[in-house]
Amino acid sequence: MKNTHTARGRVILCLILGFCISLSMLGNTSYKPKSPHVNSWLQTSVEGLITNSEGAPLPGVLVTIKGTLRGTVSSLNGIYTLPAQQNDTLVFSSLGFITQTIPLNGRATLDVQMKEDVTQLEAVTLNAGYYSVSEQERTGSIAKVDEETIEQQPLTNPLSAIQGQMAGVEVVQSSGVPGSGFEIKIRGQNSIRATGNDPLYVIDGVPYSGSSLGDRQTSGSIIAGGAVSPLNFINAADIQSIEVLKDADATAIYGSRGANGVVLITTKKGKYGATQLTFSGSSGLGAVANRIDLLETPEYLEMRREAYRNDGIDPPPPNAYDINGTWEEDRYTDWQDELFGKTAYFTNLQTSVTGGNEELRYLVSGNYQKQTTVFPGNFDNDKLSVLSNLTHNSKDDRFHLQFSGTYTLDKNNLLATDLVREAMSLAPNAPELYNEEGSLNWENSTWQNPLRQLESKYEAEGSSLISNLSLEYKFFKGFKGVASLGYTQSDLTELRTVPSTILDPAFGLGSEVSSAIHNTGSRNSWIVEPQLHYSFSLGKTEFKTLIGSTFQEQNSERLSQYASDFTTNALIENLAAASNLFLLANTDTQYRYHALFGRLNINHKGKYIINLTGRRDGSSRFGPNNRFSNFGALGAAWLFSEEPFAQKSLPFVSFGKIRGSYGTTGNDQIGDYQYLDTYALSATQYNSIIGLRPSRLYNPDYSWEKNKKLEIALDVGFLDDRIFFRGSHYRNRSSNQLIGIPLPGTTGFSSITANLDATVENTGWEFTLNTRNIENTNFSWRTSFNITVPDTELLEFPNLEGSTFAEQLAIGESLNIIKVYQSQGVDPETGLYEFTDFNGDGVISAPDDRQLIKDLSPSYYGGLQNTLSYKNLSLDILFQFSKQLGRSFFATGGLVGSMRNQPESVLDRWQEVGDQTSVQRFTSGLNGEALNSYVNYTESDATIVDASYARLKNLSLNYQIPMGRNEVQWDVFLRGQNLWTITDYDGLDPETRSSTSLPPLRIVTLGTKITL
Description:
Layout: H1 4-24, E1 43-51, E2 62-65, E3 71-73, E4 79-85, E5 89-93, E6 100-103, E7 112-113, E8 124-125, E9 132-133, E10 142-146, H2 147-151, E11 169-173, E12 182-186, E13 200-203, E14 206-208, H3 216-219, E15 239-245, H4 248-251, E16 262-267, E17 273-288, H5 297-310, H6 335-340, E18 344-356, E19 360-372, E20 380-393, E21 399-415, H7 420-425, E22 457-476, E23 479-498, E24 515-538, E25 541-566, E26 578-604, E27 608-619, E28 628-638, H8 644-649, E29 653-667, E30 678-686, E31 689-696, E32 705-718, E33 723-735, E34 737-742, E35 751-756, E36 759-775, E37 779-796, E38 817-820, E39 823-826, E40 833-835, E41 852-855, E42 860-870, E43 873-883, E44 885-887, H9 928-938, E45 944-946, E46 949-961, E47 969-983, E48 1001-1011
Parallel strand pairs: 1-7, 13-16
Antiparallel strand pairs: 1-4, 2-3, 2-5, 5-6, 8-9, 10-15, 11-12, 13-14, 15-16, 17-18, 17-48, 18-19, 19-20, 20-21, 21-22, 22-23, 23-24, 24-25, 25-26, 26-27, 27-28, 28-29, 29-32, 30-31, 32-33, 33-36, 34-35, 36-37, 37-42, 38-41, 39-40, 42-43, 43-46, 44-45, 46-47, 47-48
């Protein structure tokens, strides 16, 4: 392994250097006049207020004297003051607004109202190194959330910011445990392989790997999803915008990397003007929002005794401690409250300094976050991050340089096992947790004290560096060269300890049974992208061309070791103190990627637009004969609102565009070296020598998955865009699927990686409606609504019935299905569950009788957002919703009647012949027929229930304290997340559809932000 401490030292040194350079510019932020000689007898001072079309103060507007470099920037309250001469002409400019040129004519006060420029408004940056396109002219499908939306949410992962905000983008939080990630699907699942559907993440033009360096054996029992999400290393407070590219036109320029969509994250940049210091701090509380109504002690004991009576067992056996007198029968403990009912605390501190002039802008920010858990014990997640950004423009505006670097340290200290499962199952009259002297109570070895899990720890310490340098030079009008250089470095160290103290002391076991898993991972990547851009016009037709190349290399290392039999538990974190060491993984991989890409954009009369994109990709993940492949797309748009007939016959239509796209992308997400013969260390020894065993068969012939994307869309605005509607229909077909082809057991291998002529189709409808309901000087109300109706279908799969996928997939069905028994309810005569015998052999067995198909994919999902503001007070409310099915509590809740607590609904059970009910008779598990019936029940459609929900996802209340006409802005805010959920789901949380792991927390934070 490389010395990660040395690498980290270099990283910190670079950041300090960048910080010092930025600080050196703090004193050079004002605009300088061309000449110090000014006719003082003509000089005066002009001041004024700059507002937007709604009358609200507009900060950051550049005010210059025409023909000079003298100027200033409006303050946070829209105020500007500028020394000028009586006959000067002022120029007011700001991105998204029409530049205004106004002569002073001797005036000392000049107030200006800026008008929005539709051609610049909502400009979307596709990539800092590729190109930008306005909302009006785009031909591709792009969704965006901006800085204002992101700041209104208490975030630990940037993907949380887009939940419920974008049509066609499904985001699901995996757990409420710190360090857990999110699952994201952009227009469905394209690959049959679960690991082949991740989008491409690009941060400031630099690709960032979304795959974890963590080890599932180390973190899987505490972090849902199995490994720490690397996106947790990105500070949400540093993000300026998040764009998601969905269709072929938008993603084809990324080639194979954009097969599953692209998530572009742009960090904040320096602002024009005098030095500006911002500080924000917030503190909050988090808790589990929902509890399941489980049986209290009297009902639970009744269930247990009835179970034994039904099984013909009286008195209860010696191990039935809950009802045979061993445990007290009048004790009651709410284990949900004990084991995950604590309050979690959140702290977030952010400070930044920014400023600059036309030639140089800078931004330096720092952030600290701390989050505790709802589990008993002292566990927390600490994160520290630094962002540095520097932008330079030459005086002649021909040379442009931009550097951005962000570095994050993250330390996660948790227990090793999620306690939710035990909290759901423990008997309500189980013993006390502690003895009188304060030690864990094992109640004479009659139970497994749940707090034993606190003895086992999970610790993770990670760091992430993302840096980018973009250079641009304009050779002549319309022609420029661009070079984008990026470097990323990620490191993660994990430790899971399982000391002997987790076991009952009565067993007499010491540190010889203690164990620990150490995992260390490191990943670095560099990318170089030279490009040439040329724009020109021929008559009324504008042409924009781009040609570029990508050179990327990624190196990953991981070492995972299992240690056991320690000399003492005090040295359990020290590998040298272990008598036994076993290597779990030792990998060193290199991934190389090369591409040539180009773009031609043709815009005729501002209303007929064609966008051609092509890319030739090369990936080291394929054999020598299949490493390169070609991808491309065609996008087109017609702005029919610019046509004379529309302007005459449709005066209420302020904007109208029909657009469409078709193209192909690829997919190489199969891991490295899959085409080679590979060997692994043997688990056994021969004469004290560890041998090698073959682990993979050679196959250099497989090649890229192919994804063909088609879209047709309509964008239309009414009444000066006060009502804006977007609707689109997409169809993606992914073929040449890369999966493991099953092999006969005689080969010694279960499968071989190869292309299968299987085809997956994703289709869907996406609708977005934005309205400006009320807008005046004091009050405004805006609404945004989006909904997606997706459909995924497996069109082809040769010999599916004879493959290992026969139990998981079905032709004509989604990839997210489950095959289950068909429940016939409870037999009134026997009191047992009955099921449909599809093959008629009199026996309920898999796979012949497990024929009913249930699709767990959402039928539709979306969000509804309302933003209201009155003077200095603003309120933002976001509802998220999804129509879906899920596994119920009873699918994993355990046998009803055994020593496991159950929901109150089980009391409506079968008790005597003729009873009509949905719950079979109680059984302790000692009746084979009843036990088998229950096992079949957990794999039947009876445990597939409605998991639809509507959730108050985010609420933000902000008040700007009036500070007068000065340079200070002071805001106080109250923010909440996951505040209220409407659902019929019987589990803990309908989003995760689980009752065995910690759900997303309900969070409320209170904070303030001061800008000087």
